Amino acid sequence: MLHKLTLLAVAVLVTLQSVAAFNVVVPAGERRCFFENLEKGDTFHVSFQVGEGGHLDIDFFMTNPNEILVEDAKKTASDTFNFEAKISGKHEYCFSNAFSTVTEKTVGFNALVFKPYREDATNKTDPLEQEIRELAAGIQEIKNEQEYTLARERTHRNTAESTNSRVVWWSLFQSAILFLVCVFQITYLKRFFEVKRVV
């Protein structure tokens, strides 16, 4: 049992080179870019969710070291990309809010790098080790889905709270208008029925 747990821990550490979860604020008319050094054959996974701002949409794009566009998404609230590096070098991915002139956006995203498994020619591949690697990748996907769900829940909660606040203020405004109309009508009717005396 201890041997299996050790293999699982080693597989998780070997399979995932880097895991990062971030939140970034992208001001109106600007973009925020990040870099990842990938080797040929590495798989880069990025998932994002716009949590606050405007219509909850953002542009996303990714370029390889030759500045060739490899991934692109326009005005999307959330998305997931899996990219296998064809060449080694610095890959750039950006969140752009250039289309917005007023509203800044808050984006939460996860970035993961998966190193390909290279079999050692001197040793036979252990089927248990292969299963553990697949299990580790599945666990990471579940974690990504949970973070995505939490971001969606936070977005919906903010929307509900904002709507509730607007309803309360609108109700108070209507009550104030109704009170003023009642005061005006009572005053007007009172003057209408007043009898003017001639001295």
From TrEMBL:
Signal peptide: 1-21
Membrane topology: Single-pass membrane protein; Single-pass type I membrane protein
Keyword list, A-Z: Membrane, Signal, Transmembrane, Transmembrane helix
Main localization, broad class: membrane
Record localization: Endomembrane system; Membrane
Transmembrane segments: 167-189
SUPFAM superfamilies in the record: Supernatant protein factor (SPF), C-terminal domain (SSF101576)
Domain GOLD: 31-113
One cellular component term from this protein's GO annotations in UniProt: endoplasmic reticulum
Organism superkingdom: Eukaryota
One of the GO biological process terms: vesicle organization
InterPro entries linked to this entry: Emp24-like, GOLD_dom, GOLD_dom_sf
Family: Belongs to the EMP24/GP25L family.
Protein name: Supernatant protein factor C-terminal domain-containing protein
Organism: Lobosporangium transversale
